[in-house]
Amino acid sequence: MSGYDGGSDGSKSFGRGGGFDCDVLVIGGGIIGLSTAYALTRAAPGTRVTVLEKEAGPARHQTGRNSGVIHSGIYYRPGSLKARYAVRGAAEMVKFCAEYGLPHEVTGKLIVATAREELPRLHALVQRGRENGIPVRELGPAQISEYESQVRGLAGIHVGTTGVCDYGAVAAQLAGTAGACGADIRYGAEVTAVDRRPWGVAVRTAAGAVVRGRVLVNCAGLHCDRVARLAGDDPGARIVPFRGEYYELTRPELVRGLVYPVPDPAFPFLGVHLTRGIDGGVHVGPNAVPALAREGYGWGVVHPGELTGTLTWPGSWRTARRHWRYGAGELRRSLSKRAFTEAVRRLLPDVTEADLRPAPAGVRAQAVLRDGTLVDDFLIRRAPRTVHVLNAPSPAATASLPIGREVARLALAHLD
Prior knowledge:
- With 416 residues, the chain is α+β, with helices and mostly antiparallel strands.
- The protein folds into two domains: 1-106 and 163-236 and 370-416, FAD/NAD(P)-binding domain; 107-162 and 243-369, D-Amino Acid Oxidase, Chain A, domain 2 (2-Layer Sandwich).
- The chain is 31% helix and 27% strand.
- It contains eleven helices and 20 strands.
- It has helices at residues 31-43, 81-100, 119-131, 141-147, 167-180, 224-230, 304-312, 314-322, 324-335, 337-345, 400-415, and strands at residues 22-27, 49-53, 69-70, 104-106, 109-113, 136-139, 155-159, 163-165, 184-187, 191-197, 200-205, 210-218, 237-249, 258-261, 273-276, 282-285, 289-290, 356-369, 379-383, 386-391.
- The strands form three sheets. Strands 5, 6, 7, 13, 14, 15, 16, 17 and 18 form a nine-stranded mixed sheet that branches.
- Helix 1 (31-43) packs parallel to helix 5, helix 1 packs across helix 11 and helix 9 (324-335) packs across helix 10.
- The longest helix is centred in the first third of the chain and has 20 residues, at 81-100.
- The chain is globular.
- The two termini are 26 Å apart.
């Protein structure tokens, strides 16, 4: 990126003193980027913060296209960032929603084993939950029916700290509060180039605007690895997009709250589950199939350049070879409503194909290493004058407040 209004030493293009447009420049207006801006304005009042978001408003992708669950943290390895941030973040998210009058509810949820081979994994979840400090109640078949009269299973657990909210509303509130404290939130500002020097960073947007900051924070979600490369850093992983397809239950009275299967620990996906949202509707899903574009919300959305990037990344093929059986099942459920219904009927036997109507899909930004490993934990890396958030899938929305504080802390350390 060149052609600014100064020489190669940056004396005019960056100003080295008063020539910066902001102290911290955040790329990405999803819940993590906005939480970072919110945390910066609280931790260091007077810090000049600018957020650049390519869409016309906040939370247009992962943040605004999920089931709205406030996760308890039961699934995550004790001591991992996911475990620490999810447990802390769940409590903070409920408090944040209450403080600002945002719709939310602590509903609790069931995790149900429907086959004998799932029982050891269910017991392991009980132990993991207790290690993470989460209240867990073990259930037999009759006790499952006390919570969900239409759900059947051999055994289950009830997790009392799980809830639901509207993450789009949360993101909008974060943007509004940060903006009221002086942050400059700019929509329709897609970053196309990055120029980093020892004393600062400048970016150019698709509209030709140049914005200069002392520190860059990359919270670009589905495009975070691309932004890292624009900054001259090797992210060490490639974002491989997985589409999560949902249905809505036409008979929402069949489900009172949240019902999940026992997940396979080999995958970062939780399986097809039932979620009663804050609007009273029940979402069913998601499955997880490779998307043909980073914002590929349907099979008809194909971006050849992005698809080529996925197919030429060695980790994509290694993941496919390692997990092809699992992937084949997900693909079958994507292409066959009958197969999807069969998966739901394991938990809710009375469901028929007619009870399911299509709902909007989401896309998960999954970081995949070169060796085919699906990155399981949050991945935050520092580089000169830069903080990169390179993997922040679920439960990132739940954990967004503590993640935002940590990213803000790292950004402020660069300023110091």
